[in-house]
Design a protein that fits this description.
Layout (H helix, E strand, L loop, with lengths): L7 E3 L3 H10 L5 E3 L1 H12 L6 H12 L6 H22 L2 E3 L6 E3 L2 H13 L17 H15 L6 H22 L3
Parallel strand pairs: 1-2
Antiparallel strand pairs: 3-4
Helix pairs in contact: 2-3, 2-5, 3-4
Length: 182
């Protein structure tokens, strides 16, 4: 349709990440900080049982408050210091009686840590690319608005719903071009 994609912000589900990587590999892909923060907080719970969990929760809570490159550096150093101090506990294993099978002793702590570790290069791209959103809140709000508009026309056939959506975004993009409000 002639759109040039300058960046992607997503909740980091596999299909979106894979499509972005395969179809537009040179375009920055920001991992939604709100989704990342909520996911990690749900794993760590509001009141972690270990001191390591409490410390990681504090780091996670500050994730969405990073406003500039200086704060990004501080957050990353804080995370790396946490990693150095607690990597043994994060990787701690519990062995079954047969001594052959094992699992990570702190599964949710490890999963929260790994989520941040694996995606650290995609957490703060919004600071380097002007206009790239740090979260998907605006997009989700837009979809909610579109669903409300569609719900008024419940009797539309599938084909007409598709055309409705195409017109919706076409007219919205024309309005934004005219008023330069991207």
């Amino acid at each position: 349709m002639g759109y040039k994609i300058l960046g992607v912000s997503s909740d980091w589900h596999g299909s979106i990440t894979s499509a972005s990587k395969n179809m537009i590999p040179d375009v920055p892909h920001q991992r939604c900080l709100v989704h990342t923060q909520r996911f990690c907080q749900s794993l760590l719970t509001r009141h972690p049982k270990t001191e390591v969990g409490v410390q990681l929760l504090e780091i996670v809570k500050c994730l969405n408050h990073v406003k500039n490159k200086y704060e990004k550096v501080i957050w990353i150093k804080w995370f790396e210091r946490f990693e150095k101090r607690h990597i043994d506990q994060i990787n701690e294993r519990t062995y079954a009686k047969d001594k052959k099978h094992w699992w990570h002793a702190h599964k949710n702590l490890r999963r929260s840590y790994r989520t941040l570790k694996i995606s650290i290069n995609n957490l703060f791209l919004y600071l380097d690319y002007h206009g790239l959103s740090k979260d998907t809140n605006a997009l989700e709000s837009e979809f909610k608005h579109l669903k409300q508009r569609l719900s008024v026309h419940k009797g539309l056939t599938r084909k007409r719903k598709i055309n409705f959506i195409k017109w919706y975004f076409y007219l919205k993009s024309r309005y934004h071009q005219k008023h330069h409000t991207f």
